Amino acid sequence: MLLTIGVIYFIYILTKVYVSVMEIGYVAKKKHDKAIILEPQNYIKAADYKIATQRMDILSSLFEYAVFIFWIGFGLKWLENSITIENETLKSVVYVLSFIIVGYIFSLPFDLYKTFYLDKKFGFSNINAKLYITDTLKSAAIFIIFGGAITFVIVKFISMSEYWWLWGFCFIFVVVIVVNMIYPTVIAPMFNKFKKVEDESLKEAIEKLLLSVDLKSDGVFTIDASKRDNRLNAYFGGLGKSKRVVLFDTLIQKLNQKELLAVLGHEIGHYKHKDILKNISMTALLMFILFYIFGHLPSSLFEAIGIKETPYAILTLFLIFAPIVSFFFMPLFGLVSRRNEYAADEFGSKCQDAPSLANALQKLANENRTFPKSHPLFIFFYYTHPPLNERLKRLGVKSDE
User: Could you give the number of structural domains in the chain?
Assistant: First the structure.
């Protein structure tokens, strides 16, 4: 049994590493082609950034496998013996939270390297140590409070019924809905300052656009994203009365009004096409499969690892192996997402005009140093948006490729 799960995890890691190796080779070769979409200096810089991040991802994947060996080999048994709490429910909550915290500590060097070295080297990151620590402490508080509560409920389900996996799925699905509802109004403001668009001309144009598509929302907001990062972005979040359009301050600084309205139209397109609900449905499908799998684990698996078949052991194995299932579902999610992006582009171009949206997308690519070419295998596994040259073609713009 241990050999089987080791082979499964190895195949997962090998696939990730292979895809990254293919991407590095592809980008290194295309780096010397004539620049398209991006300005020549940004084209080279975007290629270098992609290669650097993929090299880091390879190292991270190999380290992930080493951590897996640690947990399966003796880490889970060590953690079980270290926590001497008699109350089974409380022990389960402490065990699962401890497992996640140790995993976070293991991954911390990679996050620090990317945030404070790689992203700063390429001109993205503006974050300082104080803000990073503040963000980390806020995230930790949210995790301990809500993560502990969620773990407590799932542990109770496992203890009460053999059909815990079904009840657990229903509970987590409700949690996902609630999080989507409160994220833009409760969670996101803990990390960024939100304010209504102040430019009167832009505000009037946005209100006119929202009226033309019959969209009622909590409003269009800007956030102080530049205190952490220079990249441009926008998103549409929330459900029901909490839904709102959020524009990064960096986006407003770099795009003109027509381009901003085109981007806003794209985000509205996601809402009008019910893409948020589609994403929730896809997530629900994945969660159902995961809960079903981990609700029917064989007892021999726990015996092979050398741990008791307890609620905390089930949840910990869930956390260890869920990334494998999720990874191989990513191509399906990506396929649906890329189709949604094309449809949102079409909607955005009709809200304003195709040239304005195309110009906005090219500015986004230049400012975000997004290399416009990728290996087909990398696109298959990781791309949630279509390649930019394909999006521009759909908008009637040639990329000179």
Answer: 1
Cα of first residue to Cα of last residue in the chain, in angstroms, is 50
Write down the catalytic residue from 267, 275, 346, 367.
267
Query: Is 197 within a domain?
Result: no
Identify the domain containing residue 49 by its residue range: 2-191+272-394
Q: Is-catalytic flag, 88?
A: no
Look up the pTM and report it. Answer: 0.89
Q: Is residue 224 part of a domain?
A: no
Q: Is residue 360 in a domain?
A: yes
Task: Tell me the C-alpha distance between 212 and 217, whole Å.
Answer: 13
Of 57, 259, 345, 346, catalytic? 345
User: Quick one: residue 274, left, alpha or beta (phi over 0 = left, psi -120 to 50 = alpha)?
Assistant: left
CB atoms within 10 A of CB 279: 18
Tell me how far apart the alpha carbons of residues 236 and 206 are, in angstroms, rounded to a whole number.
14
Per-residue pLDDT of the chain (401 residues; tens, 9 = 90+): 778 888 999 999 999 999 999 999 999 999 999 999 999 999 999 999 999 999 999 999 999 999 999 999 999 999 999 998 999 999 999 999 999 999 999 999 999 999 999 999 998 999 999 999 999 999 999 999 999 999 999 999 999 999 999 999 999 999 988 988 888 888 889 999 998 888 888 888 888 888 888 877 777 789 999 999 988 888 777 776 667 778 899 989 899 999 999 998 998 898 889 888 898 899 999 999 999 999 999 998 899 888 989 999 999 999 999 999 999 999 999 999 999 999 999 999 988 889 999 999 999 999 898 999 999 999 999 999 999 989 999 888 766 55
352 backbone dihedrals φ, ψ, rounded to 5°: -125, -95
Torsion sign (Cα): 377, 381, 387, 390: positive
* Nearest-angstrom CA–CA distance, 329 and 160: 31
d(CA 184, CA 237): 6
Q: DSSP letter string over 14-26?
A: HHHHHHHHHHHHH
Residue 41 to residue 31: CA distance in whole angstroms: 11
Q: Please, where are the H alpha helices in 213-298?
A: 249-254, 257-272, 275-294
204 occurs within a structural domain:
no
What is the chain's alpha carbon radius of gyration, rounded to the nearest angstrom? 23
Strand 244-248 relative to strand 234-237, pairing: antiparallel
* 345 carries an active-site annotation: yes
Side-chain half-sphere CA neighbours of 269 within 13 A: 23
